Amino acid sequence: MYLRSLKRLCGSMTVELTLLMPFLIGVFLFLFFSLYYLHDIAAIQKGCSAALIRGSLIRDDTEARREMQEAMEEIRLLGKWDLEKSIRIDREKVSVAVKGNMNVREGLFLKLIRDRYVYETSMSTERIDETAYIRSKRR
After folding, report:
1. How many CB atoms are located within 10 Å of the residue 102 CB?
2. Is the pTM of this model over 0.85?
């Protein structure tokens, strides 16, 4: 009698896990790719901030552009992105804009999220004349 009830429980457990596993794998894959995406967004924002800081401290336009491009090239991403990076330097302001989307390969569950990871940002800051800034803070 005990063996009969044990066999029934084992069979129902197999059926339940068979129905549950695809759902759990899908949730795991979604979280995995979401973490990739969030890491890359944080890296892009950090690169933009570093480019702005480097560009705002240099008064020479060509030197500032070179430093900002160098900072933008130091961005290390985990996923494959098609990014358009643009740098704009004015007399009083420097600006950085990044636009692009993350390429996700097609696979088991990935067709649902393909080409939906899009990011667009633009940041700007005023240029700083270091000596004038230091002298203004002394007073």
Report:
1. 23
2. no
Q: Which of 36 and 51 is assigned the larger pLDDT?
A: 51
Q: Is 29-138 in CATH node 3.30.1300?
A: yes
**Quick one: tokens of 80?**
């494959």
- DSSP states of 43-104 as a string? HHHHHHHHHHHHHHH--SHHHHHHHHHHHHHT---SSEEEEEEEEEE-SSEEEEEEEEEEE-
State both tokens at 5: 């009830």
The answer to whether 45 and 72 are in contact (CB under 8 A) is no
CA distance 8 to 15: 11
CA–chain centroid gap for 41, Å, is 2
Q: What is the pLDDT of residue 66?
A: 92
41 in Cβ contact with 80 (< 8 Å): no
* Average predicted confidence (pLDDT) for the chain: 78
Return the domain boundaries, the chain: 29-138
Q: How far apart are CA 139 and CA 136, in angstroms?
A: 6
- Cβ–Cβ under 8 Å, residues 63 and 139: no
Q: Give me the amino acid identity at 101.
A: N
